[in-house]
Amino acid sequence: MELKVRYFGQLTELVGKQEEEIQLQSNRVSDLKETLFQNYPILKKHSFQIAQNNQIIGEQTKLETTTVDLFPPFSGG
Amino acid sequence: MRHQQIPEIGTVGQERLANASVLVVGAGGLGCPALQYLASSGVGRLGIVDPDTVELSNLARQILYNESDLEKNKALCAQEKLKQLNPSIEIEAHPFALNHTNAFSLIQKYDLVIDGTDNFSTRYLISDCCLLLDKPMVYGGLFKFEGQVSVFNYQEGPSYRCLFPNPPNLGEVPNCSETGILSVAPGLIGLYQATEVLKIILGIGNPLSGKLLSIHLLTQKQVLFEFQKNPTEIERVKTNKNPLPSSIQDCVLDFEISLKDLTKEEALHWIDVRKLKETPRLKLPKLTEMPLEKWKSVELFRSDLTKKILFCQSGKRSKMALSKMKAQGIENCFCLKEGAEVLKKWSEEL
User: Fold this and answer.
1) Would you report the helix, strand and coil content of chain A in percent, each value rounded to 5?
2) Once rounded to an integer, what is the mean pLDDT over residues B101-117?
3) Which of B33, B73, B97, B281 is the S-S candidate for B51 at Cβ 3.0 to 4.6 Å?
4) Is residue B248 predicted with pLDDT exceeding 70?
5) Which positions in chain B touch A47 (Cβ < 8 Å)?
6) Which among A8, A72, A77 has the least Cβ separation from residue B30?
7) Considering the entire predicted model, what is its pTM?
8) Cα distance from B304 to chain A (closest Cα, Å)?
9) CA distance B333 to B346
10) Which of A49, A51, A73 lies nearest to residue B173, judging by beta carbons?
């Protein structure tokens, strides 16, 4: 499946883009993560959440949309 | 006050504000605007926690302060300014860092807490205490041109740990002073936090519980993410009855020690975390050489009740080592502010 991934915060700098289209073998979140880790090994060291339809999803959720959002924890100050 | 003309607020709402108390942890970029509006809105009692002093680089976004305030403690300085703004409310300054010994009793004295901190250890500490004390925590986060806002522990809603179960690793997420920040970003996010506080006190609208508002100022795009309560994470904190050790993982400031604070008589256990080939090597009465990259277990320190001091070449690795010790619950350990060179001179003078 084709999926648009939108990045937030520091993730945009780690992957070097705001958003991109990626190809996935399945609609599993684990597949999405594996693909991202393959493309950007640095992401393995960073925590982030994944949302579809503005709902934060876990490993077990099936991807049903064409766009997902990835956001990391933000610092403050 | 114009508030009272709004039927949703009225005199009853204004009285609610007067009877409410809010603790603002961090009187920086987020805390300043939030404090100003909470004071001017007539919130009856405000507490301000901040150990830091005003620096020139703060002034662009920490708008309570001006050049004549440089070097002053932020909590005390903010208290002074806010008293001028609204003399009819109580303003309490706590000019020290929130830590695991004072957090509980301090947070207990207020109805809710604004998280205006610049570090994850304090944020997790606030989060765990608020969860255990059943107080709402109004969170604000920043990254350059972006911000996040949410409300945790509101009417048994999700907690910060439901979103991010554990603090990031040391250095994983940079703070504002490392990345830089658009001056207005904390202003806007701080005001979103103040808005959530007013909504909660007044009982109007829908506080951002179980929702994370994400704002990008360059595109003005906003996204409202929704998330669920994670019972495992809530239970983890509740069964511990205290903030989890991870909340002090990178809370190194309170555990940084300088040679001038140490005396000759004191029994100390020195731990050198540098690589074995790094010089100068030191000769100290009780010394363990334990290069950081080879750390597997810190168990051998668990039964050692002596004051343990970690050191390295510059003070950076010893901080990382300290956070590992703290995360494992090793007591009475500190990291040395100075590096090995200075320590060598100090030990030779003894």
Assistant:
1) 30, 35, 40
2) 95
3) B97
4) no
5) 164, 166, 168, 172
6) A77
7) 0.79
8) 33
9) 20
10) A73
